[in-house]
Amino acid sequence: MLLRESFSLKKIPFLPILDITILWVFAFYLPIGFNYPYLFLPYIVLSWMVISFRNEYYMVKPYTKVAKILRKLFIQFIFFFLFLYAFIGFFKQPNISRLALAQFLAYSLITISTFKFLHYVIMQKYRSRLHDNATKVVVIGKNKKTDQLIHVFNERVEYGYKNQKRYCPNDYGFSLDNVFRYVMDKQIDEIYCSVSELSNEQIVKLINFADNNLKTLKFIPDNKNIFAKKLKFEYYDYIPVLSLREIPLHDTINYGIKRFFDIVFAALVIVGLLSWLTPLLALIIRIESKGPIFFRQKRNGLDNSEFYCYKFRSMAPNDNADEAQATKGDMRVTKVGRIIRRTSIDELPQFYNVLFGSMSVVGPRPHMVKHTNEYANRVDKYMLRHFVKPGITGLAQVRGYRGEIEKESDIMNRVKFDIFYVENWSLFLDLKIILQTVLNAIKGEEKAY
């Protein structure tokens, strides 16, 4: 991720919304003459978003060159032009004015291009004025390329980076442990290192540290062979930089798609199910045992931040709720609790967490704070699961790794599936996990106790 997730404008996909609004306004007011306007409007939206996704049209950063933006605009509108004229023949629209359609395309191109470049300029100015809130970085290496990179950080403040310190591996007394302490003490966001000045053992040590502490690690490349992994090249001015790990949900469009889906799905569940199920369950829970209807517990979420996770109470009130997981035959679980836990109904209040933004419908399951601290020290790369929001259900859960951690391999496999989800997210994968979750709830699961 190249811009800090705390940069709020990044998380708002307002450019796609603005572009679609522009297309709709021109389509509505220009005398195009289509027979089915309510068919044309969703058609151009779907066409625009499909082309944008394939073209990576909205992946524009403060350091992106103007020539690259122009190339994206050209590709976007060339293919959009083809989709527009395909609409005439595909839906048999002989009354559509070709001239008005050309006007629609020209007006859309001018207006959308203007707003795109205006957004680009504002993004750079915004970053320049908020340099104190820039992404904090350290650079490891002393050579021409690291000198140039540090110069870019210092001079091009609109990129949103602030170099805090440089470490020289060839200096006497250099130690990665000192680097790690500084990174943690000063809350550094990203580490840039020159591959040519580090041994393979040091690179591996850097990768493990970054993975386990939610730090972004990037390499300044040379001719040295790094890893047999898919690496992403980017350019800061004219300095090439390699990203070791690409997180799909750190992309603005992907984040916006997932967040929109979460809001719609959560709203449907809350209105259609929880609105009548909650008072019914509240009555049943209170009849069996005294205590609150809802159970809330602190758990770790995005970027390891803590939040309150809500559930229907399935246990008698006890002092160990925040310390111990439910086990098979757990005496704390009530009769009603056994039923709602087996069917996963107890998890439904977490759709409020989804609606308010602390959770997602699908993602790595959030763990208790005590367990997070424990597993972070025991399980390698455990903290990678906190690069995305936690979910009500997840890939690990539908693959059989839900509930109680009985042996070390349980948490190892759970983390393995969580990391796969983080690195390979897609909306299709989310839908597949949701469907499998529903099927598992209907037939029952062995560890749902």
From TrEMBL:
Gene Ontology MF term list: phosphotransferase activity, for other substituted phosphate groups
Principal localisation: membrane
Record-given protein name: Undecaprenyl-phosphate glucose phosphotransferase
Domain of life: Bacteria
Residue spans crossing the bilayer: 12-30, 36-53, 73-92, 104-122, 263-285
Subcellular location: Membrane
InterPro entries (UniProt xref): Bact_transf (IPR003362), EPS_sugar_tfrase (IPR017475), Undecaprenyl-P_gluc_Ptfrase (IPR017473)
Secretion signal span: none
Protein family per UniProt: Belongs to the bacterial sugar transferase family.
Keyword Transmembrane: yes
